[in-house]
Amino acid sequence: MKIERIKIFITLVDLESYSLTAEKFELSQPAVSMQIKSLEEFFDTELFYKENSQIKLSPAGKIVYQEGKKIVKRWEYLKQRVEGKKNIQTKNLKIASSTIPSVYLLPDIISALNNNIEVLKTEVSVGDSRSMINLLENSEVDLIVVGYKPQNNKFKSVELCSDNLSLIAPLNHSLNNKEKIFLADLQNQNFLLREEGSGTRKATISAFKEADLKLDDFNVISQLGSTEAIISGVESGLGISFISEIAAKKAAICRGVTEIKVADAAYERKFYLSYNKNRHDDFLINSFIEAAKNIL
């Protein structure tokens, strides 16, 4: 018995139309009827009956429909696994990531992935969220991990984890002596900001907006192209800045900066994994998603 025959049967039940089923499988209507007849001969029983000119499933047909869907699902999974093993020998998994996930999320995910899949090679491009989204739109990478959800209906996006903004300042900064700090208290400070297209920049501006403030209300003296550059700038005394809480906690331990709580800047953002919808059954992409869910 061929899997394709079961697929045709299931589709006929779902669409309730021989013509639509024939169109979907690029067959003639008589060819669809022949496939159903062959299935009935295989089981030696009728799978359909007509009632008021409508096609109805017989009791046996209901069983074939229910169990057939399970068989097809398992078959597709088997094909996916086999294809994945074949592709691993010849194809890298190309990932594009914004800076925070590339440093603080991807290493653990890729490590887990390599433990589960033999001979896997990954290639990671790093940049701001907008640039990484452009790479996926141009099909230059297999998946992206970025700081905001791409607005493209050709993408499937999965939420990986959430993050908050944290203010960092030099260790000897005057803000360290204040008991409570609000965004308005930062307006006369030298401020460092990420570049256009950055998810962190977008989250920072959104936090300002929620407090009825604008970017122009702050003394932005420098725009820098990475979280590492921001941390280094703050450490040298150039100014203060909002960065990812994930990055801020590590920087406060390992670098010459301090993390400061701002009372009205409790803005949460999320990191998303996105890929093209037409690759929903890709073995490597699904394996990456599974590894990410297990870790995060």
TrEMBL record:
It comes from the Bacteria. Keywords: DNA-binding, Transcription, Transcription regulation. Residues 1-58 form the HTH lysR-type domain. GO terms for molecular function: DNA-binding transcription factor activity; transcription cis-regulatory region binding. Pfam families: HTH_1, LysR_substrate. Belongs to the LysR transcriptional regulatory family. This is LysR family transcriptional regulator. It comes from Halanaerobium saccharolyticum.
